[in-house]
Amino acid sequence: MKVGLFVTCLVDLVRPNIGFAALKLLEDAGCTVVVPDSQTCCGQPGYNSGARDIAKVLARKVLAEFRDCDYVVAPSGSCSGQMKVHAVEDLFKGEPEEAEFRSLAAKWFELSDFLVNVLKISAVPNAPAAIGALTYHDSCSGLRELGIKSQPRMLLSAAGATIHEMTDCEKCCGFGGTFSIKLGDISTRMAENKCVNIAASGARVLVGGDLGCLLNIEGRLRRNGDMQTKVYHFAEVMAGMTEA
Amino acid sequence: MQVKSMHFKATSSAKLNDAVLQTALKRAKGKFVDGRAAAVAEIDAWEDIRTHAAALRDRVIANLDAYLIEFEQNAVARGAVVHWAETAEQANAIIVKIAQDNAVKIATKSKSMVSEEIALNDAMEAVGIEVVETDLGEYILQLAHEPPSHIVAPAVHKSKEEVADLFVAAHGRPRLTDIPAMTREAREVLRSKFLGADMGISGANFVIAETGTTLTVTNEGNADLVTTVPRIHCVVTGIEKVIPTLEDFATLIRLLPRSATGQSAANYLTLTTGVKAPDELDGPEQMHVVLIDAGRTKLVGSDMKEMLRCIRCGACMNHCPVYQNVGGHAYGWVYPGPMGSVLTPTYVGIENAGDLPNAATFCGECEVVCPVKIPLPDLMRKWRERQFDQALRPFGERFSISVWNAFATRPALYAFSTRIAARVASWWGGKDQRITWLPGLDGWTDGRDMPAPAGKTFRDLYAARRKR
Lengths: 244, 468
What we know:
heterodimer, A: 244 residues, alpha/beta, Rossmann fold, four-stranded parallel beta sheet, 8 strands, 52% helix, B: 468 residues, 3 domains, six-stranded parallel beta sheet, four-stranded mixed beta sheet, 12 strands, 11% strand, elongated
């Protein structure tokens, strides 16, 4: 099974460890993973800024890069939503390329969803011995566009994690891509609300599936002087790669 | 209502630090969000009803002219007069003329957001007619000289103490802070207005084509008094509110109060059909229905036509994380939250409301809770597309996106520049790997650190690993 890894631009630039963790999880599960070298961005920043044509150019680029893969997996619900939902339901809907993008969408999966619903894994092989207590933030695109909710929790629990659900775990953290810069005060307040709920959960580890949200929340935690609460991507925790 | 939407960014930042407002918003969030969830859970077929209602509203909007004419014929047959207003000014002129022709001195009003759109009270008061809001929230705001901040709970931003002060100033009675007692006081004051009014003005949640009925949903029963006691009843509403049959109303009313306030049923449904018949005891001698366009026909057949499905429940704002933190006044016009971020640019011009379509993280909660399945994030994105195409956003924003595109479509250039960026940013982050200030990204770094990049891109690390 040839699986293309869509690294995502944020992981590539900011926290490559998440990409290697995703790679390990897929390879440990028996996948042959390819990482197209020319990949950059799914086009979502342009798309949500109203630059529709730019988003289409980048979507076509992604399509070409992953055409010969059996599956495409991304450690992000947000980029996955862009390709699985927005590319077919909006950008190329009713256009000649729609069928091609539909087939890309059909083989594209967010990482935890792929492990659970395609590979049918109930416990990740080589999972770390003791994950411990954590709280999970549901990222909006993954949750509402792709139905990512039980998948990461199931795998984390199977590996011995205790999940302390925080109040409003499904509430947006305030990242929203360029929103976090355009309307920084509101974005910061939303991140602050998230920090309060994380603290109240009692867990000292926050896990999520989208690096954008994690950077936003971690950035607020650190600005508040909280250096203790750990912030990890789901892939890093499952692959036992939190110490990179 | 005066448009202040162009000040969204500054106003919203100020609202984040308004302690009274923040307390009120937290209280409201619990009530509306949890209440809706419980009320929706009562109905097994909720999703089916939503789907049906969305299709019903689409059918109406696609045949708006036919249903409106059917409504007019049936309303006229019951003795009502139907007026058509293309603009707010025309609507106000029609209503003022009705009042003046009938020597109206006092008009009572039940809640109408359309009347806020057209600033009806100002037009009436300008010719010396006293207008009295009778919805308790609207009454409070009339005393405070403030616009509503929410379409269902207009005074949701006010504290009990603020209301107590307003009542003392307006009523000249001892200050009360017990809510039932305060409500009783307002009822006593309003009673004489209800009985003394020459004209009652109501909005309409729906108008029914098959019967010529206009319909108002309230919890206070004030619309009953407004529509039946005065000799003239004037309905002011938007042309998109028409629905074909009373049966269709039965469908929509299963959605509306549950979505709006978490109630299984609203306390009062006020249906008004025509004037008082010779053998009837109650009802107005004249009934006027003013149907207003004011921008709505621009949406018919457009790529934002789904917005006309809206039944004004307010669920989108109640669940919106932006609204929950800044409240309704920040949006600067009649309609706050996601529905306002689509409607306000349509009705008052995108040049006056440019931040509103951008005041969303596209978290998608609004679309999930909308009882008529309006794809609100998609519609806000369409506004952003128009802003991008027409160069209506700040130069820096457009420039950044174009630069991003120029790099992202050239893999070699992208790989090179991200290699540099990762190193520079990692160095910039210093020993503890936190970036506390970044030129051009102060929107982020004013309130948050930016965790610094690891220093090498995944691409480079992966290539090195492959070589080994």
